[in-house]
Amino acid sequence: MGWYHGKSLVPTARDFFIYGGGIFFEAGGVGMKVGQELTGAEILLEMLQAEGVRYIFGYPGGANLPIYQHMVNYPSIKHVLVRHEQGAAHMADGYARATGKPGICMATSGPGALNLVTGIATAMMDSVPLIAITGQVPSSQIGRDAFQESDIIGVTMPITKHSFLVTKVDEIAKVIKEAFYIATTGRPGPVLIDICRDAQQAKTIFKVPERIDIRGYKPTYKGNPRQIKKAAEALRAANRPLILAGHGVILANAQEELLRFAEACNIPVGTTLLGVGAFPVRHPLSLHMAGFMGTGYCNHAISETDTLLMIGMRVDDRVTTRIDSFAPKAQTIIHVDIDPSEIGKNLRPTIPIVGDAKTVLKQLMDELPSMPPRTEWLTLIERWKEEFPLRYPKSRNGFIQPQEVLEAIYARCEDKAIVVADVGQNQIWAALWWNYSRPGLFMNSGGSGTMGFAFPASIGAKFGRPDLPVWCITGEGGFLMVMQELSVAVEHNLDLKVAILNNRNLGMVRQFQDSFYGGVRHAVDLSYMPDIPKLADAYGCPGYKVEKREDINKVLDKAIAYKGPVLIDFNIDPEANVYPIVPLGKGLLDFWEAPE
Amino acid sequence: MSKTRLIAMLVENKPGVLQRISGLVRRKGFNIESLSVGPTLDPTLSRMTIAIHAGSQEIEQVAKQLNKLIDVVKVSDITDEEVISREMMIVKLSVSSGKRDELKATLDLVGGRILYVGRNHVVAELTGDGDHLDDVIEVIKPYGIKELARSGAIAMVREAKTL
Description:
The structure holds two protein chains of two kinds. Chain A is built from 23 helices and 22 strands. By secondary structure, chain A is α/β, with parallel strands linked by helices. Chain A folds into three domains: 21-212, 3-Layer(aba) Sandwich (Rossmann fold); 225-387, TPP-binding domain (Rossmann fold, 3-Layer(aba) Sandwich); 402-578, 3-Layer(aba) Sandwich (Rossmann fold), CATH 3.40.50.970. Chain A has a six-stranded parallel β-sheet, sandwiched between helices. In chain A, helix 1 crosses helix 2, helix 12 runs antiparallel to helix 15 and helix 16 crosses helix 23 (552-561). Mean pLDDT of chain A is 94; it is low at 1-6 and 13-28. The mean pLDDT of chain B is 94. The longest helix of chain B is centred in the middle third of the chain and has 13 residues, at 56-68. In chain B, strands 5, 6, 7, 8 and 9 form a five-stranded antiparallel β-sheet that branches. A four-stranded antiparallel β-sheet of chain B has the order 2-3-1-4, covered by helices on one side. The radius of gyration of chain B is 19 Å and the shape is elongated. Chain A binds chain B through residues 153-154, 157-158, 161-162, 165, 182, 214-217, 339-341, 343-345, 348, and chain B through 11-12, 15-16, 19-20, 23-24, 27, 57, 60-61, 64-65, 67-73.
């Protein structure tokens, strides 16, 4: 079974916690100075150590210096000095996605904290467990417009799962414990902890909260048995059943359950962009990615299904395109999500099920252990696969096609590398032109669409998984937004490869202007770019430029042979476009295919 | 159907909770028509009543989102229940001494009470549901309303069940 690799690369955050109403904590663990008088900064570090934190991606400044003063005494926690705080947030995000453990970023008050904002929003949109720790001006100065004061709690309220303002040293231990619990359980998300400098410096007797019980926070993991029964009955009665799987399947570590259920019941599976990897792409039942830039055959299946099971996804506009074109013939729509507010937000299901993807899939399998194949339906799908295959023009004016680059990289690491894509055309190419056989191989900023995500996130991913090759697939635009972090990659000699798919323009915007905005190309020209090999040289790592197709393999081999960061500037077809694509404002079946 | 809907909530009595709630309602595209917050028997909890003009599916979504806030302990849409709802109004009326008795008689009829009598004005309080207070305003308008302060609604379900 070449296409299926079984186990996920990523243990989920939830594996580290106990299900249920509260968590129990072993007070006085190894190295914990319980009962001693410590500063707030030391208590913070003790708690981080006890949580198993290995990396903090951060930047010091006036309001968090007490933490840095004591950090040197905690050698198990390694601080990675970023070059811009946005990089810290994305690195922590990439670390979290690659390991399933919460990623930690740290910044000072005011501008430091504000620079984290884009990264926190990115983690929020993609349900990534992230802990952002910011220094705040002393509590007596709050509200006085003190130097480097900003109301980061107020600023981040809409983009965090929760946040804490700590003004007193006695609150720190409990807040850290609650923050990790909230960030990693239920639907994961970022939690911000803003700690006043005086609370970092004040001393108190270090006590660890033994039990945490947050009365306003009780995630539901198990699906309602009556609803499960109804869902099973609907699927049993279906002639054209279909599963769409989202990020929730990966976060719940439910890929094996999904595979077993789909196989036992012979139900085809499509995924969302963030769900790529939840189901093996080359499995005969796989429909690959759905939606706006999804495969034609998946979109056809959505249009014709009579019974749709959506699991761990939030039915966003990039999946549905025009909402009335989404599953118009479905008699029954079953929506499973751990977040009750996602159910009915964009689409009203007939059978809502609140629960964790893994638990609910197990429950479903108990109710519906197997189902004979719907031959007519599967034949229809095979026909769509033949009729609308993914394709690209192999050669146009001699230019390198981005898909060729991806295929050449894939040939060298197959499904044993992590691919971190940026945002834009490179993101969709990386999603579609790689055989992801399991979760944890592909990460990208799906919800927020944050350009500049990939490079720092790939640094975080490499810190988290030094055992795996990490490929950053980015455009020249996104790379330039964050390239200062190359210093971090060189400083730590991270064996990280950056493939810049350089088309000398802002490709996705250019494609939109060409296709949907009257062909007026404006503000998309990126011909003025630094010379990438020289830039790499300036930072202290190898860099290559690939202009001819025949050089692709040679340069890739050289890059892989070098143990450290490498930049590769692939001069690709400036007119290369993403296909299939549904024109803006149109429905799922209105997709355009790649020209022959 | 779009109408004014009432949500009753129990929330943590902490700084910033009101901002989290009002910010969320705004982010979801709704306007808060009225809001009242007060302490409960448990000093760590506050009770909040929010009136929002919305459809039933929209309010379901707002309630779910509110429930997601960590500091929100309980949320209940009580619009379609048998609800007892009260608002309070304090009103300053310009009234000469000659008309005071007539005003008092009027206020008695609508359940009002005079709190203060000045040389040429009185201050009165009134309670009732929103419609009642709207009616009262029409009745006392002729006396000359100098100033009016009105609270948001507080509400609870009539039956024995609790929030």
